[in-house]
Amino acid sequence: MRTKEMVLAALFASFIGVLGMIPPIPLGFIPVPITAQTLGIMLAGCFLGKKTAGISLILFIVLVALGLPLLSGGRGGISVLVGPSAGYIFSWPVAAFCIGYATEKVWPTMKTWKVFIINIVFGVLLVSLIGAPVMALITHTSVWAGLAGASAFLPGDCIKAIIAAVIAVQLKAISPIEDKIRNA
């Protein structure tokens, strides 16, 4: 891993931490709040590419496990990583990697709508399909109830997917994916 990739991974881990400073929106019927941090996951994937984005989110989770209050609402520590939000949090590196992989595949013909679809599939659906069943398991509810509760995240996550796609397309020229394509 080059120095530039390490710096970008650390930068995006800190950016996701900054997004955690935005207060969460608690929902009364599900123990996982609405946060802005999934925007950072989508941006990391479609700007950094698969490898650097995945490493960035693994770094973020390690920092949270060490007790840094990087999650929305100032949460951090091992207790958060075994609570109802655990499935969502642990899905973030997988989602960022998949978003990065798919974005790298469409890079030469990248359009906003393609990145939006990628963000929806991996940044919204994949995160919910991993997070909701784990939340249901931890809270002793049915998986269907967990998935139904997770549907509350869909409108906001779709907006975040659009924002991430627009930003990624605008920043295409300075993305490390562009460097990788150019040097290959």
TrEMBL record:
Per its UniProt record, what Gene3D superfamilies does this chain match? Answer: 1.10.1760.20
Any Pfam family hit? BioY
Per its record, how is this protein called by name?
Answer: Biotin transporter
Q: Where are the transmembrane segments?
A: 30-48, 55-73, 85-103, 115-138, 144-169
Cite the entry's keywords alphabetically. Answer: Cell membrane, Membrane, Transmembrane, Transmembrane helix, Transport
Origin superkingdom: Bacteria
Q: Where found in the cell?
A: Cell membrane
Gene source species: Paenibacillus chibensis
Q: How does it sit in the membrane?
A: Multi-pass membrane protein
- InterPro entries membership: BioY
Q: Which family does it belong to?
A: Belongs to the BioY family.
